[in-house]
Amino acid sequence: MMNFRYFLSATLFAGLCSAADAQPQNPPPAENSRQATSLLTSWGAEVTPEKVHPEYPRPTLVRSEWLNLNGLWDFKSGQKEDKELKKEEFRRKILVPFPPQSALSGVRQPAERCIYRRTLTIPQDWDENCLLILHFGASDWETTVFVNGQSVGEHRGGYDSFSFDITRFIRRKEVNELTVHVSDPAQKGNQPRGRQSSAPAGVWYTDSTGLWQTVWLEPVPPYYIRSLQIHTDTDTGTAVVQVDANASGRELTLSAEAFDGEKSVAKVFGGCDGPMLLRLPQTEVKTWSPDSPHLYQVRVRLLYKDTPIDKIGSYFAFRKIEKTKDENGHPCIRLNGKRLFLMGVIDQGFYPDGLYTAPADGACRMDIRVVKTLGFNAIRKYQKIEPERWYFWCDRLGILVWQDMPAGDNKTPESQRQFRTELQRLIQSRQHHPSIICWTIFNEGAGQHNTEEYIDLVRKLDSSRLVCGASGWADNKGGDVNVSHKFPEPEMPAADADRAAVIGSFGGLTLVPPPEHAWTQNTWGFQHVADSEMLVKRFEAMHGELRKMIQTQNLCGAFFRQLTDTEGECNGLMTYDRKLLKIPPEMFEAMNRAAIKTGGTERDDKVDKVK
């Protein structure tokens, strides 16, 4: 029998993990925790108010000057109907950006309504003429922001970033007060929320109210670059750079320059009212793939005559994903012209100490590196939208992403409009990332409505990726892929002459972890196994079934459930605290790589030999 405890961080995570495998410290005290145990990751054990997500949060549009507002804020919570809430004094502290339900927040208490408060002083070395933009990575769900007692704006949505120009509300040489009000009805409402619940059980996990991504302040010049989109064409070696600047109709121009490492490979100048075209020589074009995740750096400048008044850094990649027909007329998926088999894993994106918020950037990086170490080439980001830095690590490390739109109930016309709005924001805010290859609109029928209309909408917003209208059993015959879900054994989707066949979820094999690595002793799963040896045998049998489906039924991809245990659901390949791996990594890597080869490059090689 394989010893479950053998597969410790010493055998796999050394060299993957940036944080030391420190012994957990005492977490902040709990007042009303639904968590049965105090479970920390190694990164969570190192979090302090002075050391909490210090990285620049927006890797696709980078400036050198910024002020991180993460850390301890004043905090109070109450029910939405509490009319006296605003008159209470702040009696508590919360560690932003961790949601109040999480251990790392220091609150560990359910919250439907939150009020945050902190003071800030503008750095003396910032230009007195600059504008001051206040950014929120994400806040769940309805947010109102005040500066020095004046309302500066509102936002509805739990996953997308938003910002406000607070210049006229700030006293530059004084201490300023920033107050943020957030309400989140969780499952009482119809809004997109994925798998969050205020009554977690089974496949529903603890909700995350309020500020759950980095809050930051940025100085920008009076005329500045507001956003950037780069769309590449691998066949022509061109990159269309679309800049949104508040400089239309003025005597300002733009320049964009692409770099391959330190080498400049393309440069273009243009006006502020249209796109610019970067054209690389065909000899310079290097494509992005999981085996070679090549990224080009780009520098964009806003110019007055020849003087830069704003400059930002970003990156892009040449990557082409498409659904085509193979030599026998069967649908298949191709990456950069080569047949691709997706051997993926489902990732819920929850952490025992931060819930929706990773305890540190290194935790995100390690999760993705473990996925690659286990031989997968894809992640299905299940019912959650991550901060931009998570996608940055997918881009940089080389993993394909099958991105879900988080589900909502969508029972009313208003909630359906909100779903549509947040779906549009997802695509507009994340389409910069080459790692994302497919958008999934609905999962297993949850909140499903007007599917064909949404498929058309997504294709209009982004024609460069695949679209999955419905993953699971509520198939409307639309989109680029036909997706089945079955547990534990994989099940081939119904035959379809026009759509690629993908198994969107299978597995769910449950090996209960030792108590010190479990969220709760009340665990569950789709099918329990006794030990690691039995777990490996079941994996081997499932992989055998996958290879048969690849060879005889043209299966194009499969996603195993799941990467980590998530609260009481113990179907993970890793424990929830990311400290134990349940299977031998070398054996699992070999099985996954064999499936990728059988369904991808090996089939292409056979076609080449026939030709």
Summary of the model, kept short:
With 611 residues, this protein is an alpha/beta fold.
Record keyword descriptors for this entry.
Immunoglobulin-like, 34 strands, disordered N terminus, TIM Barrel, alpha/beta, Jelly Rolls, 6-stranded antiparallel sheet, 611 residues
Tell me the Rg in angstroms: 24 Å
Q: What can be said about the biggest beta sheet?
A: 8 strands, parallel
Helix content: 10-25%
Oligomer: single chain
Kindly report the CATH topology of the largest domain. Answer: TIM Barrel
For this structure, what is the CATH class of the largest domain? Alpha Beta
Looking at this structure, what is the CATH superfamily of the largest domain?
Glycosidases
Strand percentage: 25-35%
End-to-end C-alpha gap: 48 Å
Record the strand order, biggest sheet.
Answer: 29-28-27-26-25-34-31-30
Number of strands: 34
Count of alpha and pi helical runs: 7
